[in-house]
Structures are given as structure tokens and as C-alpha cells.
Write a structure and sequence with these properties.
alpha/beta; Rossmann fold; binds iron/sulfur cluster
């Protein structure tokens, strides 16, 4: 181990974050490696090690002969200080080598508030921040992940972005890079070629020109660059690589369990939900594949918990069969089977009783809005009766814990909708009083509200975000009207969600904002210990950028959007039609009940999207 690191570790919290050496980490002989990738996750070890995308791509890259992919996580503040003080640059966990030793530096970015960490990690690795300052093929910096459907705020810093799913695209990119390295291409020549791999977006080939009022006027496309970048998807998840041989972390991580991805995509189409659109179309794995993957993951990791994950696991058609087979395997071994993201409308009593055999975890529902009118406007196809009925079944089955998630500031929301949340909570409380089979411990209802953030690629991508003052007023209104003091009510901070809105719909002018706020010392924004809103406000002022331009202003439907050249397969006309339906409180059936011709199914070979 590096001597500097040895000196530093006794003085930082959780040194296990920084040493690697875990069971099942991948170590390769450098003599047999001709392409080294530093795979960076812009948050702590505990968060990054829980990230499924990172696990999948780490396995896929390391499966390639001659390629060695290592993990890099953002250091906590104490570690960063110590590294700076001792002159230790950011390094790959497996080899301990600094970022400058790697050919490619890849990021997976799933949260806007990690953008400062991205820049900070480059800085700590002594990698020039701006793509234009990195000459030659070395240290090619690229990124993928859920936020990269609008990568514009990071455009100045990255050589290219991967739009969509990376399982097939990543090896193609790595093979091209290997060829370029062997044949000593220039960086320009590599970028020209890589831009023609489907799903790759090279921002330097696109010049953004702005109008005087600040809106985008034109995107000039360099000769030969693609006019549109369409996301990549995996056609058949059953044949896609899935990492059952996962690294067993040295310390407790956020999701410390085996993870089974039952399907990709969501049939629902909630109008605020970016993932619900960008992950289309729905592609399930077969229960046979999943059962085998479950057994392999549990046996290789020794985990005592496995989760069935996806955007909406209760919509997985074969869930009863799969749950039954998995319980047959898990119950005698005392392995807990957990199902996150269950919907209120189809949570079956049978399944609930079966899961109870192992462990009784709390119920979590996300009605998102308090009234049926608003739930229809956002296309959250769940009724109050369904929510109450599900709660009744749960309370009768012995559950006492319910978590409810809502949003404030959704388009068309009125005070009546806000108060509707309190009314719904009251009805749930009444249901518990009438039906609970186990009243000894009392009923625990946790209510959480988030501040609506309009996201690109959704029908609400043009919407205004309500002002922070208005959000706080609605939040107080709800708090004052909560039916019982025993209800635990938490809310998201307005300032974080406001910044999320800026960065989610931002353009490439925000690059200078990110650099400015980083220079002021801001990073680890997702952590209360570090987040400093005032620094952001100062940075906006320094850069002459008005955050309201990206939030309360709203975008015109005719306006050229910063992410206009990127396509997730869903047609813009469909999003506009969905927006109209929202204003008329009209719902749209889920994709399984009826295809609404959004366009995404056309991404599948032979797929039709014909309504
Ligand atoms: S159910 Fe709605 S909110 Fe949940 S993933 Fe699907 S579209 Fe998104």
C-alpha cells in the first residue's frame, strides 16, 4: 500500500472506504493489460458500491481480456483534506495507481447534485477539468447514467457521453479506443469515430448559440457529426450479462444485499417521472433466469438478503411465481426477500402473507398527490379506494408501519390538493383503527413530501417549478393540517430541489457555474454536512446566471431545448399530447393495457408502436 495512504488512514473516518482488497475485487496482471479504465462513482464508497449500473459495467469491462477496470469513489471531506495535505492524488482502489495512469476515466452519474463531485474527483486526480485542455488519447473522460440524457451542464468537461444502457455500448467504445491507442490516432480522430457508435454524444461537435434573451437559438452541428443521438437499449435482458459474482464490501453499504433486476422500464407513465420515460420500453427477465441469478448471487456473496428491484417491481407479471420459488429457496436458509417500490393498486394479500413468513418490513406507497384529480393529472393511476384497501389488507395482516411519498408543486396543484394529502392520511389512520390486527405498538405513518422538479424527457419538461417561497407555504399548510401529532412528516429542502431543477434542465453555460462553486469549496452536495446553498447563490451571482431562468420561468413548447438532439425513443409530440391530457386531468392507460404509441417500442427489433 502507498506509504502516504498508510500515514493518512488512521486519521480518517471509515478507512475501509479507501483500501480496496475486498473479496471478489478484480486484480489483473498489468503486463497483460493494454487498456486501463478508472470507473468513477461521484459519491462515497457506500453509495457507489450499492449502484447496480456500476456493478454491471465493472463486471462487463473486466470480462474483456486485456482490459482492467478499477473503482474510484469520491473521498469524504476528511480524506480529501488529508490527501491534499500529503500530496496523494485520487487513485483506483484495486491498484492504488493515480488517475493519471489510466487510459480512460469513466463516470456513472445518476444525480444532479453529484456534479460538483465529478469535477472535484477530476481535480483530485490531477486531470485537467476542461476536455479541450486534455490533449491526446490519454485520460479520455466520458460518462453515462440516468442524468446524462441532458448532459449539457457537464459538456465542457467531458470528451463524450453515453446515452442509454451501457452493456453493449461500453465494450464497443473500449475496443475502438484500444484500436486507436494501438494505431496512435489523434484525439480528434478517435472522437470522430466514437461519435458514430450508436448512443455516443460528443459535445464538442455541437455549438450552442443563444438568443439575447438567453434562450437557445441554434445548435450548429460539425460536419459529419450525427444530427440526432438515440439512446441504446438492451434488446433481451435474459441474454445480457448480469453480475452474480459481486464484490463483497468491507464495510456496510447502503444496499447491503444481493440485487436482482427483474425488469427494465416501467409500464405506468407517470407524467413527472423521468425514469418512467427514459427506460422505456419495458423488458422483463424470465423467472427462470432470475431464480438462477438469485441463487448464484446469494451463494457467491453469502448475503442474507436479496431484493427484487426495478422501477415498479409489483408490475412484474411473473412476480407471484418468482416470489414463491425464491421463498422456497430463501426461507429455509433464513434469507430475507425484499420488494421495494410496490404500488398501492396491485399489492396482493397473498404475496404480502408470503413475505411475512420471512420478515415484516414496512409498507411504502407513493401516491404522489392527495386528490384523485391531481393523481389523474400526473397519471398516477391509483385510486383512494385502492390505497385504503391495500392498507386495510396490510393492517389486517399485522403491518403497522406505512410510509407515504408525495410531491408538492406538481403542475395544476391547488391548496385543495395539498389538503387532500392530510385527508388521505387521516383515512389511512381511520382504516388502521378499524382493521389493525396488532394494535399494541400503535400505527406509524411517515409522510414525506418532495418539491416537484420538472425533468427533461417527461411531459412536464416545459413546466415551471413553483418558487421556493410557495413550496414552503404549501408545506406549512400541510403540516398544520396533519390529522395527528403522531404522524411523522418530513420534507425535502427547497434549496436542493431548486438546484436540481436548474441542473436537470440546464444548458452548457452552467459549466462555469459548476467550476465557480467548486472553487469556493463546494462538493458532496448530496450531504447535509457539506451542502452550502449560500455558496451556490454566490456562484450564480459571480457568473451572472439567474437560477429562475431554469426554474420558475418554464420553457416554451416551441423553444429549442438544450437536450433537443438527444432522443430516448419517445416522440416529442407524444410528450406534448400527454401534457395536454394532464391539464384536462385525463389519464393514459399503462403500456400493457394499451400501447399509446409513444415511440419507444420501435427501439426493439421488430417492435411496433401503433396505439
Ligand atoms: S410507477 Fe410511475 S413513478 Fe414509478 S417508475 Fe413507473 S412511471 Fe415512474
Amino acid at each position: 500500500m502507498n506509504e502516504k495512504l498508510l500515514r493518512i488512514l488512521p486519521n480518517v473516518q471509515k478507512p475501509a472506504r479507501y483500501v480496496g482488497g475486498e473479496y471478489k475485487e478484480i486484480i489483473k496482471d498489468k503486463k497483460e493489460v493494454d487498456l486501463r479504465v478508472a470507473f468513477c462513482f461521484p459519491d462515497t464508497y457506500e453509495i457507489g458500491m450499492s449502484n447496480l449500473g456500476m456493478r454491471i459495467l465493472y463486471a462487463i469491462m473486466n470480462q474483456m481480456p486485456g482490459v482492467w477496470c478499477e473503482r474510484v469513489f469520491a473521498p469524504w471531506g476528511d480524506m480529501e483534506e488529508a490527501m491534499t495535505e500529503h500530496g496523494l492524488p485520487l487513485y483506483g482502489l484495486e491498484s492504488g495507481d493515480p488517475l493519471t495512469d489510466f487510459d480512460m476515466i469513466a463516470f456513472t452519474i445518476g444525480y444532479e447534485m453529484s456534479y460538483t463531485n465529478v469535477l472535484n474527483m477530476l481535480r483530485l486526480g490531477n486531470i485537467p477539468l476542461h476536455a479541450r485542455d486534455r490533449k491526446g488519447l490519454n485520460q479520455m473522460v466520458f460518462a453515462g447514467g440516468a442524468c446524462m440524457y441532458n448532459p449539457e451542464p457537464l459538456a465542457d468537461f467531458f470528451d463524450f457521453f453515453c446515452i442509454g444502457e451501457g452493456e453493449e455500448m461500453t465494450p464497443e467504445i473500449l475496443e475502438l479506443y484500444r484500436k486507436a491507442k494501438k494505431e496512435q490516432w489523434s484525439k480528434e480522430a478517435f472522437l470522430k469515430e466514437v461519435a458514430h457508435i450508436e448512443g455516443v454524444y460528443v459535445p464538442s461537435f455541437y455549438e450552442h448559440v443563444y438568443k439575447e434573451d438567453g434562450r437557445l437559438q441554434e445548435i450548429k452541428i460539425a460536419e459529419g457529426a450525427p444530427e440526432r443521438i438515440t439512446k441504446r437499449i438492451i434488446q433481451n435482458l435474459d441474454s445480457a450479462h448480469y453480475p452474480t459474482d459481486m464484490i463483497v464490501p468491507n464495510l456496510e453499504i447502503v444496499h447491503d444485499r444481493a440485487n436482482l433486476e427483474v425488469m427494465r422500464g416501467c409500464i405506468r407513465g407517470c407524467r413527472f417521472c423521468q425514469a418512467g420515460f427514459t427506460y422505456r420500453p419495458v423488458r422483463p427477465r424470465s423467472p427462470e433466469t432470475l431464480l438462477q441469478q438469485a441463487i448464484d448471487s446469494l451463494e457467491s456473496s453469502g448475503c442474507h438478503e436479496i431484493t427484487l428491484s426495478s422501477l415498479s417491481t409489483s408490475d412484474y407479471r411473473e412476480l407471484p411465481k418468482l416470489a414463491e420459488e425464491m421463498l422456497d429457496y430463501c426461507t429455509p436458509r433464513k434469507i430475507n426477500l425484499s420488494l421495494p417500490s410496490l404500488r398501492a393498486d396491485n399489492f396482493s394479500r397473498e404475496l404480502m402473507l408470503k413475505l411475512q413468513q420471512v420478515r415484516k418490513s414496512g409498507l411504502t406507497f407513493a401516491p404522489e398527490a392527495g386528490t384523485q384529480r391531481l393523481r389523474d393529472a400526473i397519471n398516477k393511476n391509483v385510486t383512494e379506494e385502492e390505497i385504503l384497501e391495500t392498507c386495510r389488507i396490510a393492517f389486517e395482516g399485522g403491518w403497522n408501519n406505512v410510509k407515504l411519498y408525495f410531491m408538492l408543486g406538481l403542475p395544476t396543484e391547488t391548496d385543495e390538493d395539498v389538503l387532500g394529502i392530510a385527508e388521505l392520511v387521516y383515512k389511512i389512520l381511520k382504516t388502521w383503527r378499524a382493521h389493525a390486527s396488532n394494535k399494541k405498538r400503535g400505527c406509524r405513518i411517515h409522510v414525506a413530501t418532495a418539491y416537484f422538479v420538472p425533468k427533461p424527457f417527461t411531459p412536464f419538461q416545459w413546466e415551471k417549478q413553483i418558487s421556493p417561497e410557495e413550496y414552503i407555504r404549501r408545506q406549512r399548510l400541510l403540516k398544520e393540517n396533519m390529522p395527528s401529532k403522531s404522524i411523522e412528516y418530513n420534507w425535502h429542502a427547497a434549496d436542493v430541489s431548486r438546484l436540481e431543477a436548474v441542473l436537470a434542465r440546464g444548458d452548457r453555460r452552467l459549466g462555469k457555474l459548476l467550476e465557480n462553486v467548486l472553487a469556493k469549496g463546494e462538493r458532496l452536495d448530496a450531504w447535509d454536512e457539506y451542502f452550502n446553498y449560500q455558496l451556490w447563490l454566490d456562484a450564480f451571482a459571480d457568473c451572472g446566471i439567474d437560477p429562475n431562468f431554469y426554474t420558475v420561468r418554464g420553457y416554451e413548447e416551441e423553444e429549442l431545448l438544450p437536450w433537443a438532439l438527444i432522443s430516448d425513443g419517445v416522440q416529442e409530440a407524444y410528450l406534448k399530447a400527454e401534457r395536454k391530457r394532464a391539464y384536462a386531468s385525463q389519464t393514459t392507460p399503462d403500456c400493457r393495457t394499451q400501447c399509446s404509441a409513444c415511440g419507444a417500442n420501435c427501439l426493439l427489433k421488430g417492435g411496433k408502436c401503433d396505439g
